[in-house]
Design goal:
Hypothetical protein af1432, 2 domains, two-stranded antiparallel ribbon
Length: 253
Amino acid sequence: MEKQNLTSKTHPRAPEVIRFWDKLVSASDYGCEETRKLLKIKWLSEDSISQIMAARTIAKLIHWYWKIVTRRTWERYFDHVSWVTLLLLLELWETDPDTLSAAEDHDVLEDWKIDLWEMKNLINFRVSPGTLEITEMVTNPKKTGDEKKDKQIKTRHYHLISHHKKAPRVKVGDRMYNLRCLEIFHFNESEITEKHLKKAEEQIEETIKHILPIALKHDLGRYLIPDIEKVEKRASEVRLILVQRKTKKAVKI
């Protein structure tokens, strides 16, 4: 399949972290036409493809023009949501149009201050009830500022997802992407800081506590566990690197 590089100096290439057969690819290689071709290869109907591409357009409208909003690895934020969709399609073998559409729009409610129903009517795109349901289900709850209350809300959030049929696949796919794109994997060793290590440790703690049980319940553990193990291994390596760096500084002093 001919691919188009959509990156620029302003928006660097997304990391090559999605497995497509025997190679790793970047979301930056899959624009609208490339994604549509990929959906056809997976034998999705024209109606399903149209639904998913409409969801992609919604995500693009929300994220595309936010020039200052980029991922922590500096690629466009839009590459994240499109990549989660590709991950579900290529690695989790997901072909349900509602689930793939929700993957495209899973961050919309967090980044736009109107709900998805209003947005659907505003820009006149067809969004299925199933997509709306999954999107609202996987949207992270807003923090209240009360630590105890926020923990209760988060626990309930994951509990509701665990009892949904389709939402777990989007949540697990999203977390797989986030784990693979942690700074500890993509920054030069000299650029990695305690902050980056702490972020990785927090991601692993939350993943094991909240998301892994959901993955295991819905037979998705075999996809998520390898990514957890890779982050744990890399985090151990980074701890050693940081200790050695401190030791060298102490010796110089």
